[in-house]
Amino acid sequence: MASVDGLVSGLNTAQIISSLMQVERQSGAYLTTGKAASQTMVSVLQALNSSLSTLQTAAAALVPDSITKTSAWTSTTATSSQATLATATTGATATPGSTTFTVQSVATAGAAVSSGSVASLDTAVAGGPFVLAQGLGALGLASPTAGATLAAGKHTVAVTQSSAGATLTGSPVADTVTIDASNAGLSVLLDGSATPTTFTLAQGTYTRDQLAAEVTRASGGALTASTTTGGALSVATTHEGSAASFALAGANTALGLTDTSTTATGTDAVLSLDGVATTVSSLTRGTQLSLNGAGGDSLVFTLSGGLRAGTASATLVDVAAGASLTAVVSAINGAGAGVRATAVQVSSTAYRLQLNSMTTGAASDVTLGDNAFPASTSTLGSMLELQKGTDTVLRVGTGPGAYDVTSPTASVTGLLPGVTVTAAKADPTTPVTITVDHDSAGIADKVQAMVKAANDVLAYLSSKSSYDATSKTAGPLLGSSMARDLAQRITDTAVGTSASTPGMVGVQVARDGSLTFDRTAFLTAYAKDPDAVAGTLTTMASAVTDTVKAASDPLDGYVTGQVNLAQEQVRDYTDQIANLEVRMSMRQDSLQRQYAALETMLGSLQSQSQWLAGQIASLPTPSSGKN
């Protein structure tokens, strides 16, 4: 209803109604005050729960996980005696210990560059689609070319079983062996032949390793020899697979090879193209191998010798015959082969193609099929190895039992449990010692974090439970038994018991009720008896987490319950205020109608008065003359 303006009565009825409504609303002022107080309590308790959550997280770090048993007490740190050569970091499963090694090599990425160059980026270089491979060298394969059909994109070549030559191992030989005319001949039967082949060793005196090298040389590439840890010669055919056989046609006592009744057989290789397996029974350096995959796909390789277990990739780069160097670079970079191509300008009129592996390790060598850039198409030529892909190699020990640990990246795991060693620089002559120990400084930081979080809660409870005499304002938690009880429980965890006293290991209660942490005392106690310190503070941390859980558990924590109660009060006050506003609106409408009726009535009376006045004025005036 429109406001009443008092035009008839002359009263300021709008102001009168407003004043009356202010008086009416005073009866509900407690609702607004109550709602504001409840909202403040919600904020205070929610902030308290947030602080308690921080405390619980800090305390939980010192309590062993129920499943993994890990905690701050199991944390370790690693130091290196030669940080410029190698560093180390520890994980959750690391345990104290140490190891010493030398950095033989640090992982590098394979790279290749064209043997020739072209005059411009627009010069035609490609003979058509070609195969770009990565990691073939580590398997023992080279010169990849597409077979009759090969789908564009990346293909996987995997050797799941390494091949081996036919091998015979003799009996131990002396530290030095003299070869003369009487024992210089080594007569053998190879690959099932009934006709002996005789190799003649150069006469002289040899150590075991020198003798093995001389057998390899004298065989002209048919055999390889090495020395076992027991001091015997082990001789194998370079021809690998079950098609290779090896037997002694005659004994040679000086070499320790006397078993003429045994015929050794090589081991086949098993490899696959995109999961389709092929068994190869005869492997000789320089021969071609055709490998078939799914859907008629096939690849042809040249064998570098035997095959070794591992995985490589071969990607068919789809370019048109006569494609320019720029087009080839773009096609390689877009093929998803893990190789980055670059046209390198080596002079004002010469560009070469450079290929860099995007990964490191021995399996990162980069090769192209021999037909990629035929001489009839361009002068780019074949690809030459620019940098050999190598693994990181850490050699442990120097004696007969020394062993290598390798990784395709600079980081090596597994040398020590839960420890990652990162090689920075190769230096085969300088030993590096990695020492893993308990991280006492880090543990001290975790204890200090728990103490700080506990003090934050105590300080918050104190600030919200105090009375400001200047402003005469009471804190929302003043007089709260819940706040007093919670503060006491947190303080009691640091007091401990007769069996577990945190004060003995650096955590104490100050006179003002706050907690203190003496880092020096903690580190001294921990160095003396780490298990006892861990037990004491684990007990304290467990008590803290139990106290916090009882208070702030999202389901049944008593602080959470107080939050829910305060939120319910806010909702109840909101409903009451809304109902009050409805009543006030109705009351205001009633007053407006009453004053409107008053104005109407006054207006009617005024009209009547004016009419009567008019009528009276129109009556004739009595005559004043005499009869």
What does this structure look like?
- With 627 residues, the protein is of the alpha+beta class.
- The chain is 32% helix and 29% strand.
- It is built from ten helices and 34 strands.
- The strands form ten sheets. A six-stranded antiparallel sheet has the order 18-17-7-21-5-24. The protein has a five-stranded antiparallel sheet with strand order 1-30-3-26-27, with no helix packed on it. A four-stranded antiparallel sheet has the order 22-23-4-25, with helices on one face.
- A hairpin with a 5-residue loop joins strand 19 and strand 20 (298-303).
- Helix 6 packs antiparallel against helix 7.
- The chain is elongated, with a radius of gyration of 47 Å.
